[in-house]
Sequence to fold (253 residues):
Amino acid sequence: MTLEFPALLRLIDERSTAFRAAIASAPSLDAQVPTCPEWTLFDLAQHIGEGRRDWAATVAAGPAPAKSAAEGASAAPREREALLAWLSESTEQLVEALRKAGPDRGCWSWWETLQSPHTTGAVARHQLQQMAVHTYDAQITVGTPQPLPVEVALDGVEEFLSTCVATTSAWPHKPAAIDFHASEGRSWRLSLSADGARTVRLPEPGTPPASLSARGTANELVLILHNRIPIDSLELDGDRRVFEQLSAWDPGE
Fold:
């Protein structure tokens, strides 16, 4: 089961609170984010706030040909207390827009509909993962990295594979399969072929061996999929070149 809609909204708010706590504890908002070296901590906070406001507007707009932008949105303030209040308001706008729309309303989104639909429920699921990973970014910047909550991380593996990886674009290499095994007891298989990329839960009867199996905690799997920690953090069995090919693959090319 994926997380229910009320749980997604609760966890978006929870991860946003953790993000603001990291911002509040930072010695300097000009600190470089090690996992996103092109950004300072202020840049990251600005990205979070502006992004949540734009997604709130996009959700409110319903089905549309393009993403919406928040009209008349205030710029991210440089003063810390004002920035924290602005971030809190950004999250409130997003959560309120999602709550008002409900999980089944159509909504613009950038991903293919192969495994993730264009609904507010899918947007909420992706927004939770964005907040969770960027909260990790903020925490590691201030020296207090915490693992993602288990329920967030378990859903995060599947969300990434079904939203960010699933595609009908042809895999340009030899057909392959990667199994992801979370130590918390859940597993997935990503199949890569000329038909594209698709993920299923394991086990499935008669499933043949994968090209590569990757084992670790759900937190480690999510952070590796988002390119936050090295793949060597996992227990690997098989041809690791397949994962390297996946990391370098751009289905839009």
User: Anything to note?
Assistant: The beta strands are 176-182, 186-193, 196-202, 212-216, 235-238.
